[in-house]
C-alpha cells in the first residue's frame, strides 16, 4: 500500500512538473511566433527599402552619365572658344601692326 501511495505521489508531482513545463513551452512558442511576425515585417520593410535604394542608384547613375556627356560637350565648346580667342588675338596683333 505504501509503495502505491508513494508511486502515486511521485506520478502526481511528475504530472504537475510536466503541466508547468507545457505552460512554459506554450508561452515560449507564442513569444517566438510574435517575434517571427515582427522579423517578417522588418524583412519586408528592408526589402522595400533596398528596392528604393536600388532605383535611386540607377537614377543617380543615369544622371551621372548625362552630366559626363554634358561636361565633355562643354569642354569641347570651351576648346573651340579658346582657339577662336587665340585667332582673334592674332588677328588683332596683325591689325595693330
Tally of alpha and pi helices: 1
Helix content: over 70%
Report the radius of gyration as a whole number of Å: 41 Å
Q: Total strand count, please?
A: 0
Can you tell me the overall shape? rod-shaped
Terminal CA distance: 139 Å
Which runs of at least 5 residues are low in confidence (pLDDT < 50)?
A: none
User: Which structural class fits the helix and strand makeup?
Assistant: mainly alpha
Largest sheet: none
Quote the beta fraction: under 5%
Question: Would you kindly provide a written description of the structure presented here, covering whatever features stand out?
Answer:
The longest helix has 95 residues, at 2-96. The chain starts with a helix and ends with a helix. The chain has one helix at residues 2-96. Helices cover 98% and strands 0% of the residues. It has 1 helix and no strands. With 97 residues, the chain is an all-alpha fold.
Q: Which helices and strands occur, and which strands form pairs?
A:
Layout (H helix, E strand, L loop, with lengths): L1 H95 L1
In short:
By secondary structure, the chain is mainly α. Helix content is 98%, strand content 0%. The longest helix is centred in the middle third of the chain and has 95 residues, at 2-96.
Amino acid at each position: 500500500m505504501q509503495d502505491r501511495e508513494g508511486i502515486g505521489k511521485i506520478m502526481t508531482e511528475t504530472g504537475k512538473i510536466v503541466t508547468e513545463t507545457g505552460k512554459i513551452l506554450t508561452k515560449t512558442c507564442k513569444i517566438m511566433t510574435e517575434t517571427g511576425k515582427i522579423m517578417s515585417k522588418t524583412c519586408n520593410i528592408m526589402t522595400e527599402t533596398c528596392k528604393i535604394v536600388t532605383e535611386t542608384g540607377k537614377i543617380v547613375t543615369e544622371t551621372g552619365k548625362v552630366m559626363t556627356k554634358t561636361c565633355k560637350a562643354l569642354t569641347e565648346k570651351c576648346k573651340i572658344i579658346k582657339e577662336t580667342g587665340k585667332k582673334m588675338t592674332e588677328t588683332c596683333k596683325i591689325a595693330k601692326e
